Every structure is written in structure tokens, then in C-alpha cells.
Amino acid sequence: MKRTAFFTDSHAKKNVTVFDTTLRDGEQTPGISFTLEEKLAIAEQLSKIGVHVIEAGFPASSETERQSVKAVVGLGLSSQVCGLARSLTSDVDACIDCGVDMVHVFIPTSDVQREYTIRKTREQVLDTVNEIITYARDHVDQCMFSPMDATRTDWDYLIRVCRAAMDAGATIINIPDTVGVITPGAMKRLIERIESEVNCPLDVHCHNDFGLAVANTLAAVEAGASQVQVTVNGLGERAGNADLAQTVMALTSIYGIDTGIRTTGLVETSRLVSRYSGISIPPTQPIVGENAFAHESGIHSHGVITRSDTFEPGIMTPEMVGHRRRLKLGKHAGKHAIRQMLIEVQIEPTDAQLDEIVQRVKAIAGKGKRMTDADLYEIAESVMHLAPDEKTLELQDVAIMTGNHVIPTASVRALVDGKEHIFSNVGNGPVDAAVKAILGIMPAPILLKEFNIEAISGGTDAIGHVTIAVEDEKGRVFDASAANDDIVLASVEAVVNAINLVCRMRKHDLNQKA
Ligand SMILES: CC(=O)SCCNC(=O)CCNC(=O)[C@H](O)C(C)(C)COP(=O)(O)OP(=O)(O)OC[C@H]1O[C@@H](n2cnc3c(N)ncnc32)[C@H](O)[C@@H]1OP(=O)(O)O
Ligand SMILES: CC(C)C(=O)C(=O)O
Question: Which of the ends of the chain has fewer CB neighbours closer than 10 A, N or C?
């Protein structure tokens, strides 16, 4: 498999470090407020994947924020920890009090922000930059300086501000595209100019108002920036910031630049932050989305079965980012993919049977039904006149208790291979309790790997669609799904479907051995 970069640029550095601001700009996403435990778990995950600097927060903004930045510092991670400060000594003091490795000082430099937010003249800003950076460097080894709204700042003046910051002791300059208005070409020219006229290490912080955050970040790297600011899942003010996974994978796979990130942890990181932020990942999200390596179209699936880089980048594989490749059933599926999916469960149709199965899949999916692996096996059984697979697990009753003063509890009665079993469990919510109760009823463990709930229609009576993936003891992963207007029952049904798939495979394995 080809794993070399398509493209290199003479100004680009061989190594680029990653500054993650999920806990600061990411948390500025309207409606998001991570708990202390969530912040610590995110920081640990970021450090685990090799993020160079974690911007843990803005300590002067509240006592809670100060405590959480202190707690992140207290973790003693291998990543450096940075705190944000306005150009006020009290803000810098708050960062120092937290024990951060780096203080990130910012001041507005565009005319519009300068005049209407801090009400200072250009000369006053230059004086403030000098004073605050000198102050910060008296107390801390590393000081990042951001001329806020740099891309809307008069470039000649911007150069003067950057020089003043470096003269005062800034250790790195961050160029923020605060309202996401620059284009890649202009970003390249701007970074080239600052690099040649100020000669300092450069970082870049791009917002996504026009969907250009990642492209602008890459343009800055092409021009020589040595660090990129990103957030997990592109969280951040308004339309967010440059996405961590997209930026890192483009740098790694397209440019051949070493970011030091352990890319196999990208999907796990994205899912963790999605869970804590309550912001789900769209299926089409690059790198980490459900469909990033999924193929439904017959022509694509056929190609990918033969050689995966026919319809995937090749320079980036699912394994590289901790994802997996999936063939999906649907209206656009073709015979090669369907045969492959059946062979994986030891069902081998003749060519004529396969044609019939494909036609039935297309007909059902064409009516808008989302099809699962279980649906495919049922169709194959019917077309091939196979004895229908006996379901190992047959759910009889499920009862859930929840409320504002009750620990969500679920009780399940089911037949497992014809024998009645009853099991109860508690959970964080009714879905969690029900899923744990059903998994607990099974004698052999089944690992729940993925769980997604999505409302298909809007409104309080929306249909809930649940897709899950489970893993058996051999590491094989099975997808299952279910839809119901009761979200708990949709979850229960999806888990039962998945369990029956795993048990079906276990029976096939035994038959093979016999
Ligand atoms: C582009 C960015 O993401 S910058 C970071 C933005 N993040 C946040 O604002 C999140 C945290 N912020 C907060 O909790 C609050 O805004 C605080 C605690 C910082 C300030 O709260 P308040 O004192 O109530 O002021 P408020 O937020 O209404 O206004 C901002 C103040 O900061 C000043 N300010 C803004 N940037 C700077 C700066 N870089 N240097 C100095 N002062 C600044 C403004 O002039 C204004 O001051 P004023 O009260 O004298 O007019
Ligand atoms: C503090 C700065 C870097 C910022 O978040 C922005 O300009 O968007």
C-alpha cells in the first residue's frame, strides 16, 4: 500500500507540533461546559495521543476555571499545559498561580476590535504588548502571543506588533484568523511575510466560519508555521476551529510531516469528546465519522474488496486512525459486496441465488429501509431455503424504572437457548440500564464497541434509530441497528439483534469444527 505524501512544499517544516485548545476555545462552543472530571479525562486522552501543548483554560475567567486548570497541571502529563490571559497582569497572575508551563497572552490588533473592544490606539497596544509580555516572561519560561483578529489587521502594523512581542520576550507568535475570513492563498502570503520579517516561531489558530479552517491551517504550514492550533471535532466559537483529526491526518498523510501524534487514537479521542460535549459526530465527518471508511455503492465496494486504495485514499487507512472499514447494505449495493458479507458468515449462495438476494436487498432498501446484517441473513435464508437460524436470545419482557429521585434500573426476562433468564441492572440513564441488563443476561461476554442514537424525524415523537457494533471473543465486529419511536426499546432491539448475530457466528464456528 502506498503510504507516501503526494505533496511537499519547500517552506514546510519536517516536524509540526500540535496545540490543542478543546478545553479552552472548544469549551467556548455555545452550550458546552465540561465538568472537572471530563476536563481531566480529555486532557489525559490528549496527552496519551501525543498532543504537544494543551490549552487547559482561561484561569481569570472564573474560580471554577482556575481550579480546573490547576487540576490539569496537577495531572503531571507529558504534554505542556498552557493558560490563556488577556493583556492584564491579573490574568497573567491567574495563569502563573495555576502553575502552567506557558502563558498565552492575547490582545486585539485589528482596527475594529481594537477601537470597539479595548478602546486603545495602535501605539497604546504596542506599549501594552511590551509591558505584558515582559511581565509574563519575568514569571514563566514560555509566553505565546496572539495578535487577535490578525488576519483583519493592517499587515504593516501586524508586523510591528509581532516584532514588539518578540522583543519583549515572546517565545512563539500565534496568528489567529479570529473570525475565519482568510483564504489559503492569503494565509500563505501572510505567514511567509511574518516569517521573513519577524523571524520567529509561528503558530496558527483558524476558525471555520467559511469552512476553511483546516485548509487555512495547512496553508500556514506550507508557508513555514511550526505549530497548529486545533480542537477535537472542530469545537469552538461559532462554526468552530480547525479539527484535530483532519489537520493531523492531512499533515501526516498528504504532506508527510511528523506531528508526533499517535494517530491510532484519533477516533477514540473524537468519540470521548463527542460524548462529553453532547455534540454528535456527523456520519460524513472526515477521518472519524461513521462513514469515513464505509462503502455502500457496488462499484466502490467491489474495488475496495479487491484492493482498498481503489476507492480510499490509500495514504490513510482506517487502521491508521483507529477506525474500521465497513461494507454497507443499501440501494446502491452490488453482488461482490453482498457475496463477501455472506461469505464472512459462511453462507455461500450460487450466482443465481446471489442475483436474487441482491434484487431483494435493492428492492427493500429502495423503499427507504435502513438494512442491517441481520436483514441480509434473513433474505439469504429465504432465497437459499436454509433453515432459519434459531435465535439464541428471545426477549420476553423489559421493564425500566427512571425518575428524578430514582437510580435508572432495568429488569429483563428472556429465553437464552430456550431457557428462561431474569437479570436486572442500573445505569446512568434508562438506555444504559437496559443495555447493561441485556448484555448481563448472556453467559459469554459480548463487548459493546459502538453505540449511536439518532432521532430520524424531529419533534418529541421522533423515531429513534440506534446503530451499534459489538465485538466477539475473536475480535470480529458485528453491526446491528433498530428503529422505534421509543428510544429505549430501539436500543434494546439493536442489542438483541447484535447478540443474536454473535451467537449465530459462534454456532457456525462450532459447526465448522465438528
Ligand atoms: C477570540 C477568543 O476566543 S478570546 C477568549 C474569549 N473567551 C472568553 O471570553 C471566555 C471567558 N470570558 C469570561 O469569563 C469573561 O468575559 C471575563 C471574565 C474574561 C471578563 O468578564 P467581564 O469583566 O464581565 O467583561 P466582559 O466579558 O463583559 O467584557 C470583556 C472585557 O475584557 C476586555 N478585554 C478583552 N480582550 C482584552 C485583552 N486582550 N486585554 C485586555 N482586556 C481585554 C474588554 O475591553 C472588556 O473590558 P471592560 O469591561 O473594561 O470593557
Ligand atoms: C485567543 C485567540 C487566539 C483566539 O481564540 C482567537 O483569536 O480566535
Answer: C
